[in-house]
Design a protein that fits this description.
The chain is mainly beta. It is built from one helix and ten strands. The protein is 7% helix and 54% strand. Strand 6 and strand 7 form a beta hairpin.
Length: 162
């Protein structure tokens, strides 16, 4: 039984984790109602219907914090909202993006690691996976999902149309 759930999880999540490689070549655009930038600390805080895009990657939140390195390259993006949202086209043949939502989305840019916490949900085509925390590594495809007594890990897979 556990093996079937693990295989189902991998079928749902493995395609989720590969972003289009050309996304990294696109410029990063940020739209918000307000921005506070601290150059000395290499940080920026955006608030009010924030939208961050780079190619097919899109992160939305009520508040988004960015941290950059000394070269001005993004290290982390942290989005908070009710919910914050993440979406990305994983392959050129896909018609719909993979979508995720959670109260907090922590994206580590260099390692391509996404941590979704607080009512986390990932949907891919017609299937969905949820839990209190979902961590996935976009490079390796490794996924770790956690639940708790009030919110267990849940996966819903729809049958494939033939």
């Amino acid at each position: 039984m556990a093996t079937r759930y693990f295989i189902g999880l991998m079928l749902l999540i493995t395609p989720v984790v590969f972003a289009l490689p050309e996304d990294r070549d696109e410029s990063i655009e940020i739209m918000a109602d307000k921005a506070v930038i601290n150059e000395k600390q290499n940080q920026a805080k955006y608030s009010g219907a924030v939208v961050v895009t780079q190619g097919t990657l899109k992160i939305e939140g009520d508040i988004v914090n960015l941290k950059t390195n000394e070269n001005g390259e993004i290290e982390t993006i942290v989005a908070k909202g009710k919910p914050a949202r993440f979406e990305n086209i994983r392959r050129q043949i896909d018609k719909k993006p993979v979508k995720a939502k959670a109260e907090k989305i922590y994206y580590t840019y260099e390692s391509d690691r996404v941590v979704l916490t607080g009512d986390a949900v990932i949907t891919s085509e017609e299937s969905a996976f949820s839990g209190s925390e979902i961590i996935y590594d976009l490079d390796s495809g490794k996924v770790i999902a956690s639940g708790n007594k009030s919110q267990r890990v849940n996966m819903t897979m729809q049958p494939k149309n033939k």
